[in-house]
Design brief:
- The protein contains 11 helices and 8 strands.
- By secondary structure, it is an alpha/beta fold.
- An 8-stranded mixed β-sheet has the order 1-2-4-3-5-6-7-8, sandwiched between helices.
- The relative contact order is 0.14.
Length: 286
């Protein structure tokens, strides 16, 4: 793991593999870059250099308590600073949930830096009611129940990590964190803009692979479907379940690796907008 400075704070990243083609992967809300390690390893085995990245307030990066430090625009600036730190003119950039939305935000401020986008579980308009229902109680617990949450965090740190499922390890790492900064992250996200407006998203010409999950109210499939339809070079993959990429990754990782290859194989100047008819067909992920 390595670090670089950003506005007085340290941000953590890890490089997997080698080569001139770089993909940056960001995690979901309050989770660490560790959640992207299996996908990073698979993409690295296909000849890519993959960088997993902890945004401010996540994982091994600094975690200030000021809510004002957390917003989509600031997260996008951090991702852009990572590209600058690594000396990358372009990269394929992607992430899960929060990481997906940060990728969209990055596309709005520096579209020329994106060779492609991997958007898993985007959080857009159709997710607002479920997000409010899911995250408001968590915000209250982290903010007003901080003493109790600190006890829970200390207990989680003592749970042995050996021999437990990878997803459980990632979850334990998240609840082991100091709850104060986690509450600040949630406040910054919930009270700010979650994604660029549709009219802005429709201008993103970078190739985009959008992964939607069924039966997930916080990340409704309708958001992924609509995003893939409105992006000029968007394509949709329908995951079989919310956990497919974590527990049975072969199908989806193969499609992601193929997409990354296509992004680098085609000259950037030749990437013209290609709209597809909007469809909710599950056959798109077949």
């Amino acid at each position: 793991m390595a670090y670089f400075g950003f506005e007085g704070h340290k941000l953590a990243y890890t490089i997997h593999g080698k080569g001139p083609r770089t993909t940056v992967l960001m995690p979901a809300l309050l989770l660490s870059q560790k959640m992207q390690t299996p996908l990073a390893g698979d993409l690295a085995s296909h000849g890519n250099r993959v960088v997993t990245f902890d945004l401010l307030g996540h994982g091994a990066s600094d975690r200030p308590r000021e809510m004002s430090r957390y917003s989509m625009s600031q997260f996008a600036r951090q991702a852009l600073a990572l590209l600058d730190h690594l000396g990358l003119d372009q990269a394929v950039v992607g992430g899960t949930s929060l990481g997906a939305n940060v990728t969209l935000e990055l596309a709005s401020v520096a579209p020329e830096r994106l060779r492609g986008m991997v958007i898993e579980m985007p959080v857009l308009d159709n997710a607002i009611p479920a997000c409010a229902a899911a995250f408001t109680p968590l915000l209250f617990a982290l903010t007003f129940g901080e003493p109790a949450m600190k006890v829970l965090a200390r207990g989680a740190k003592w749970v042995p990590r050996q021999g437990i499922p990878f997803a459980a390890e990632v979850f334990l790492d998240a609840i082991s964190q100091d709850p104060g900064p986690s509450g600040a992250v949630l406040q910054g996200i919930l009270f700010g803009r979650t994604a660029p407006e549709r009219s802005v998203r429709q201008t993103f010409e970078a190739p985009a692979l959008v992964i939607g999950h069924p039966r997930d109210p916080v990340h409704p499939f309708s958001d992924a479907d609509e995003l893939a339809a409105e992006l000029p070079n968007g394509r949709l993959i329908d995951a079989n379940s919310i956990v497919e990429l974590r527990v049975r990754p072969a199908r989806l990782t193969a499609k992601i690796a193929e997409f990354v290859d296509e992004c680098w194989d085609e000259p950037a100047a030749a990437m013209e907008p290609k709209r597809r008819p909007r469809s909710r067909s599950r056959a798109a992920g077949a």
